[in-house]
Amino acid sequence: MLILSRKINEKIMIGEDISVSILEIRGDQVRLGVNAPRTVKVFRQEVFDAIRAENQAAVESAALIPELDLGLRDKAL
Q1: Could you list the mean pLDDT of each consecutive 10-residue stretch along the chain, which spans 77 residues?
Q2: Residue range of the domain that includes 45
Q3: Diameter of the chain by CA atoms?
């Protein structure tokens, strides 16, 4: 893990097109600004973990549900 010290209005660059700016420091909280291409998904860790858990639960529940036969196979022939 790389550990950096930054002051307000200073930035950290990740690659050539992602920057993280220190916007405000108040007590034990730091406000960050992330500038990244729209193709890069940026999440808080707790949101990322929740999305991952929901996706995993969806995969597991889909495996429990047998494929429904609505008679469409016969019509496709």
Answers
A1: 95 97 96 97 96 89 63 55
A2: 11-66
A3: 68
